[in-house]
Amino acid sequence: MLAVTLARIAIRVLPFRVVMRLTGWPMPARPVEPDPSITVRRVRWAIEGVSRRLPFEVVCFPKGLAAHVMLRRRGIPATLFYGAAPTDKGLEAHVWVRVGDIDVIGTETADRFATIARFPADNVDGR
């Protein structure tokens, strides 16, 4: 709950470039789990469950930022993707997170969006 709420607050009050610096913090020097899928499932479950119960709407950006930070704090090399797609009213933005080829959050509609940026930028394939 704290990660999602802090992510939402950060997105609302800080400039985009400052928020995105959060995604580049170095991971701890602990060994990466051989199978991160269990932790990914737990993080996804926690974020989705909390997001439904908070008294405010939680969209893809705070969910993705919270998931990204939570996973990287656990030594799992997550990549946050920021994308956009044209709509009748202009552009629609979307955020999703992956760990290698494992979908974390927001990926169910990610194929509709062109990737504009990924964080950290050096994670080309999400690893």
Structure description:
By secondary structure, this protein is α+β, with helices and mostly antiparallel strands. It has one domain. 39% of the residues lie in helices and 23% in strands. The chain contains four helices and four strands, in the order ααααββββ. The protein has helices at 2-13, 16-21, 37-53, 60-73, and strands at residues 79-87, 90-99, 102-105, 114-119. It has a four-stranded antiparallel β-sheet. Strand 2 (90-99) and strand 3 (102-105) form a beta hairpin. Helix 1 (2-13) crosses helix 4 (60-73). The longest helix is centred in the middle third of the chain and has 17 residues, at 37-53.
List keywords for this structure.
127 residues; alpha+beta; four-stranded antiparallel β-sheet; globular
Number of strands: 4
What's the average pLDDT?
84
SSE order? HHHHEEEE
Q: What is the approximate shape? A: globular
- Report the major sheet: 4 strands, antiparallel
Q: How would you summarize this macromolecular structure in one to three sentences?
A:
With 127 residues, this protein is an alpha+beta fold. The protein has one domain.
